[in-house]
DNA sequence: TGCGAATAGGTGTCACAACACGTATATTCC
DNA sequence: GGAATATACGTGTTGTGACACCTATTCGCA
């Protein structure tokens, strides 16, 4: 079904190129999947970006990370990581302390509550992924990941 | 290279599941590709979402589309299509006229300038897609599109 | 040692998106 | 035919992302 997206967007004309069709499919799929995740996270009071930060900080362990390290590990470009962390700090999910070794650095860490929240979210997030992508066979998931990784190489 | 994304995001632990890895790959790839497109469009003064609307309106032809039809054809969910169209109207790229048949409807159409802009953008956008995805073989692009279409079925 | 460049972080301002609510017109059902 | 509901659109408010610019601290090198 090569024209499924065209039907979905109610477009009449064929895509200009195979590359454009692929781009639109990537964008559309990401929008659909991240919307679903966003809706799932809403009752917990965090956005998908915020959840992503919490997961990054959990992965960093007790040493925490400075602002730019968090920013560089985000899935999406985020030029204003300061206020993103501000909001998480205001919500009591992270703390920030200025480093004594290099006073330019401000290390961000999960609070107990932040850690508890991200741990609590593991199961429902996994269930959401299972719900959205569980119908794909392991080989399909692997192929998809590989092709996406390849697609990212040029830009 | 199954762990390329993990290296890219500097994560230590393996992904929790194949589904999660695929989700992250979709999100990351969409972010990278749409960022590139956004940067390409910036000199022309339109965002990727605005460009998307212009393309939708061109596809609709001289009859134009009402607000909700535009909204439903967008790649990403857009609850506030009114002000998106407001901005395009303020930029002189679209016009809106209230329908006489059904006075609830407001039909949006491209202006001459809007049409000229979207036509002018065809070539550089195609070049950008070629630049970002040209290194994939036709069969790879097709497989990728098909798997993404399949992935979208559940949610 | 001292001066300029680079790095880390923050802020002011604006544009844009999200949500809830309000208004006008059309349709449906009694 | 008239009230209730649905549809299409707009608006007020709040929160979030984008960009440019600023300060403080450290580093590099003469």
Q: What does this 3D model show about the protein?
A:
The structure is a homodimer of 155-residue chains. Chain A is mainly α and 155 residues long. Chain A has helices at 4-8, 18-41, 48-60, 67-73, 81-90, 112-133, 138-151, and strands spanning 65-66, 94-98, 106-110. The first copy, chain A, has a three-stranded antiparallel sheet with strand order 1-3-2. In chain A, a hairpin with a 7-residue loop joins β2 and β3 (106-110). In chain A, α2 (18-41) crosses α6 (112-133). The relative contact order of chain A is 0.11. The first copy, chain A, binds a DNA duplex (30 and 30 nucleotides) through α5.
Quick summary:
With 155 residues, chain A is mainly α. Chain A has helices spanning 4-8, 18-41, 48-60, 67-73, 81-90, 112-133, 138-151; strands at 65-66, 94-98, 106-110.
Order of helices and strands of chain A: HHHEHHEEHH
Task: List the chains of the largest interface with their residue counts.
Answer: A-B, 67 and 67 residues
Number of strands of chain A: 3
Biggest sheet character of chain A: 3 strands, antiparallel
Which segments of chain A are poorly predicted (pLDDT under 50) over 5 or more consecutive residues?
A: none
**What's the mean pLDDT score of chain A?**
88
Structural class of chain A: mainly alpha
Any idea what the shape of chain A is? elongated
Strand content of chain A: 5-15%
**Number of helical segments with 4 or more residues of chain A:** 7
Report how far apart the termini of chain A are: 28 Å
Residues in helices of chain A, as a percent range: 55-70%
Oligomer state equals homodimer
Main-sheet strand order of chain A equals 1-3-2
Whole-angstrom Rg of chain A: 19 Å
